[in-house]
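Q: Could you write out the predicted structure for this multi-component system? I'm mainly interested in how the pieces pack against one another.
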Amino acid sequence: MTNPVLPEPAPLRELIDAFKRLPGVGERTARRMAYHVLQNDVVGAQELSQALQHAVTALIHCQRCNSFSETEICPTCSNPQRDKSLLCIVETPADQNMIEASHSYYGLYYVLMGRLAPLEGVGPKDLQFQRIAQRAAETEVREVILATNYTAEGETTAHYLAEYLSAHGIKLTRLARGVPAGSELEYVDASTIAWALMERRST
Amino acid sequence: MTNPVLPEPAPLRELIDAFKRLPGVGERTARRMAYHVLQNDVVGAQELSQALQHAVTALIHCQRCNSFSETEICPTCSNPQRDKSLLCIVETPADQNMIEASHSYYGLYYVLMGRLAPLEGVGPKDLQFQRIAQRAAETEVREVILATNYTAEGETTAHYLAEYLSAHGIKLTRLARGVPAGSELEYVDASTIAWALMERRST
């Protein structure tokens, strides 16, 4: 339907193809983005171009938490007010951000930048399990919270991490699973209800 | 929910903000795109950066049809096999592309690169109505097909264009409106049915 049937200018075609590499962007959306920036937001196009270039060159991974940072140690890891006895392992910076937004965690993080995905060829080596073990084995760490997603892959990752880290005698915990805050039971899926029942607690 | 609560590296924040200027991209999607290119597709990020820069500098508007082109006259306009007696006026290059994809039109185009939108301050001057009139008044043009969208704004644009161009004694037509091909009447909206009835034709 949106196949290019007109002889398209090469720079336009290349821009559309470049947009298509972004997650969730297909031919039609990429085309809309390209037309938009060219017609209405040339300044935005130039800013995006520069922001991409700058981000790619300026951002490194924090040596402590592995998240994106401009410095070798990120501000979160170097913040003296953070509780060094807690280490929360998350899949992505987005997950880390969500936990921060809950304003209920003041420990440190380790960001996997992925999850075990055997079908995609992502194994323990790619996630640098050894580095995580080293980090978790530091004397001040008293508890490691496995906060990977409750998806098949996130669960697998948590499972393997637990096996890998338990050798070091560290206390491991996992985020509670249950009924979401503010939700009505009627609209919660059955497996969540099942988990909430299984992990019910006395009041 | 996705408000940055962590001290974010500036290059990351700038990249997210730049993505947010794209149509249909909010904070969450922009963040996903930024993390994606930084984590998994640095090459893609660089290609997008260059494609944006290249497109912005290399693309101009065709002097005949006003669509994006690398040359002063685009390949479509300079194609001798095109029927010069037909001029189809569309809102965007995307619309032009859809008409091409129907493989049922072999005339030339004029791309408005927008539509009349009084509320957004887009008037006849912005769309260069005078230039369109000049183009439509060329001796070889026998029929102008108004192929703007059947939205309120597209209709307004067609209406004004018709008024503006009719002074030149050019034959003006508009795309037929009716039941979409392959659709069942049961699922077609009432106003479309009403139009299809009003514009019914003898078989």
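A: Regarding packing and overall arrangement: The helical segments of chain B are 10-20, 27-40, 42-58, 93-101, 129-136, 152-166, 190-198.
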